[in-house]
Each structure stands twice: as C-alpha cells, then as structure tokens.
Amino acid sequence: MTALRFLPIPLMAVGVALAAPASAAQPVAPPAGSVADSTMPTFRWTADHPGQYSRFLMTASPQVGGSSGEMTAPTLDVNANANGETSYRPVDPLDAGTAWWQVCEQAPDFSTSCFAPREVIIPIHMSSERRVYSRVDRSIRITLVGNLWRGATAQVTARGLSWTRTFRGETDSNSLTVETTRVPRRVKWVRLSGTVTAQGATHQLALARVRTR
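Predicted structure:
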C-alpha cells in the first residue's frame, strides 16, 4: 500500500489566519518576590506601545479576570502615563507586606493587555518605637507606630537578671502595643529585643534597655 503524503498548504491560501499572541508591557523592577528598597519604591517596566495610555494596579490579593488578564478589585489603580512614561512612584507610603502589581497598556487599536501580576514585599517602617516603664505596675509598655494598616504581629523578648520572658501583640491599625508582665524587683535593667511581622514583611526592633529601678 502506498503511504499517504501530506503536502504543506499555506494557511492564507485557504483563508485561515493565525492569531498573533497578545503583547503587553513587561515588568523590570523591583525584581519578582523581592523586598522593595523603601515604602515608596519606584516601579519600572518596558512599554510595548510607548506613548499609549496605561494603568498601574496594585493589590494585596491578586485575582485576574477577562481576556486582558487585569487584576480585579485593585487597592491602587492610577493612570501610569499619558506621555510614554515607564515608571511609577507612589505618592504615599504603601502598607507593609506582600503585594502584587501590574501594568495594563492600551494598544493603538484600543485593545488592552496586561503582564501577569508581579509579587513585591513592601518593608516595614517604624515611625515611632516608644518604651514606657510603669513603677506602679512594674511593667513595660512598648508602643510601635508604622505602616502596619494591613495587620501586624510583634514578638518582644525581655531579659533581665535570671529573668526572660516573651510577649506578643497584634494590631489591625498603624499602632501596635506590647506590654510585659510584672518585672521582678531584683531586676534593675531589662534588655528588649524583638521582631514585627506583617504579611510577609519582617522588621527587627531596636528597643535597647529600660531601667526598672
């Protein structure tokens, strides 16, 4: 039996056209999954259609929808450029923790394409770390203020003469308070150390020592 042979037929000759893959801007910085260099980092990307309208989106829980792959319900949605810019820097500090960002770009034919959401960790920045010792209760109250609006947990270790305790605190605002139990009278100085974590971001506390008598 003679084997069948298939001859290549140009697709255009039979009226069939291959759809071109959707093009989109591409992320450049910060690197995927990295810790940003500040709470107001500069995001950079390359434009597939320079000069066209584009949007910068950011959210804490990425979900995409539609043919363009755009993130739904972003917490930040701004006009990234009107004149071909390929970078964006937030005007206010971002909340600490893991977030995702993307850029959606409009092509000359008014179609929209977006690159896949890109992960970044916004660092914790403490604007205030206060330590107050109460002689009445013989306890230490530590108050931390920073970009903790998405919730944070603090773990503080207090060390004194043959005395070590660990205390925790949680918050859903920008202020977090940790209070120790009663410090033994024999302890003259308490050295404090600890960490704050918020949605994947970690910060080492610089709490030093507190005199307790």
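Summary: Residues 126-211 form a domain with the Immunoglobulin-like fold (CATH 2.60.40.10).
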